[in-house]
Amino acid sequence: MSVSRVNWILRLLSISTNLLYIDIRQWEIERLDNEIQKDSINKILYGRRYLVVSWVREAYIELADRFKETVLLEWEANLLGINAYYCLTQISQRKISVQARVQTQKENVF
To answer: pTM of the prediction?
Structure first.
């Protein structure tokens, strides 16, 4: 999908959100899902702007997985803000804790 087409759909999403046209809004969200999936940072930014909770949730999980191996780049952290950075840290730590607990339980079984 071209950038201009994505921008056009985002404008429609904004209008349908503001005017509470739920069916049109859902249709636009579904049309954008594949394009938004490519970039976690944009997924959070667009999700916040257009109130698409599923995009924000998915992106935080994706970034938390990435966060285990590498930190956010400075420009990413600046775009998302300190609260997002804190949330990513918390999600990442919880996932590591759960994985360690599961591993310990597996070792105890065998």
So the answer is: 0.70
